[in-house]
Amino acid sequence: MINEFLNMGGYGFYVWTSFLIVIAFCFLLYYKTKKTLQKYEREFAQELEKLPMKHRRKIARSSKVISSILASQNKLN
Amino acid sequence: MDFFSFGKIIVYIDKFIKFINSIFFLVLIIGLSFALIISPIDYLQGDTVRIMYVHVPSAWIGLSIFSMMAIGTLLNFVFKIKNLYLFVKSLAPIGLLFTCLSIVTGSLWGKPTWGTWWAWDARLTSMLILMLFYVFFIIAFKIFKESENLPKILSAISILGIVNIPIIKYSVEWWSTLHQPASIKILGSSSIHSSMLVPLFLMLLVLLLYCALIFLMKYKTEIIKIKKQNIKRL
After folding, report:
1. All residues at 6 or more sequence positions from B173 whose CB lies less than 8 Å from its CB, including other chains
2. A18, A37, A51: residue with CB nearest B108
3. Dist CA B116 CA B13 (whole Å)
4. Where would I find the H helices in B34-81?
5. Which residues of chain A make contact with B51, given a CB cutoff of 8 A?
6. Architecture of domain B2-233 in CATH?
7. Which burial class, exposed, middle or buried, applies to B78 when counting CB atoms under 10 A from its CB (0-12, 13-18, 19+)?
8. Alpha carbon A31 to chain centroid distance?
9. For chain A, which residues make up each domain, given as ranges?
10. How many angstroms separate the CA of residue A59 from the nearest CA in chain B?
């Protein structure tokens, strides 16, 4: 039963290679995109760390972009 | 215009990413089950027909993304809207990936059905040209990112590339090609049975959700890059 499924009527190589290539390359792009996003979020959070505490709190409250980045960073840490 | 502010956009991006992450694996498992197990084999092509469930949605996505990028680039050139530039830049790698995947899976489908991996046939060649336009787009973003001429260069690539879209679509009707004519028509009845249409649209949904996820992550990265440059002014 499983052999029949894997064999795909003698076309297993073509069918499985097609699906595996799509899954592998989609995963690769997802992984690369996620890593890049995390890198920029981390770098941004580090830049914010350099600002005085009072100023940092003020802009974190006023900017949705910054509060989103800080929320993502808190989840990672 | 407040709706288009980065602050508002990033809130929606986070919500959409969360939503897609919550349903993606379920939709993927359903799509793959239909494509690989439940859908019937073709009376002529046998199990190779299953390649259609990744090949056709990939080709549709490759074509649609280029059309969206071309419209976005031309609108950005006329109206100078920063968001459109980020929109196009975030879409380009996704479109390139799916155009390449449609060519590779088409080749893997071609070998058992046509007896060849590749032919310089009108549909295949025009898809290869589309892939080259994506590569030109991405190279232009990298080389001319600081240049004031970038919108002009992107518009030129868009205008040249958009001419290729109807050629791809109608190539199977205008020329005698190895590639079969379209089985699915937006206007008019499709010549494909519902038992194969359902898995096809399920796999399209899976890949569209994936595209949306990657696009949102890339768009968010671009917003952070801009905010990072302006951090001193905050």
Report:
1. B181
2. A18
3. 44
4. 52-79
5. 14-15, 18
6. Up-down Bundle (1.20)
7. exposed
8. 6
9. 2-76
10. 7
| Structure tokens belonging to residue B226 | 């801009």
Q: Rounded to 5 degrees, what angle do the CA atoms B151, B74, B228 make?
A: 50
For residue B22, the model assigns a pLDDT of 96
Residue ranges per domain, chain B?
2-233
| Residue whose entry in the numeric block shows the structure tokens 């499983």 | A2
* For residue B40, pLDDT beyond 80: yes
pLDDT exceeds cutoff 60 at B2: no
Average pLDDT (A21-48) is: 94
pLDDT over 60 (residue B64): yes
Q: Does the beta carbon of A1 lie under 8 angstroms from any beta carbon of chain B?
A: no
Assigned token pair, B208: 């569209």
Contacts with B207 from chain A: Cβ below 8 Å:
26
- Chain segment B88-123, per-residue pLDDT in tens: 999 999 999 999 999 999 999 999 999 999 989 889
Mean pLDDT taken over chain A: 85
| Widest pairwise Cα distance in chain A | 68
Q: Is A14's CB within 8 Å of B104's CB?
A: no
DSSP-H helix ranges across B115-193: 122-143, 150-174
Residue at A21: amino acid letter: I
Which pairs from B221-226 meet CB under 8 Å and 24+ separation?
B221/A33, B221/A36, B221/A37, B221/A40, B221/B90, B222/B86, B222/B89, B222/B90, B223/A65, B223/B6, B223/B9, B223/B10, B223/B86, B224/A37, B224/A40, B224/A41, B224/A44, B224/A65, B224/A69, B225/A40, B226/B6
Whether B108 and A68 lie within 8 Å, measured CB to CB: no
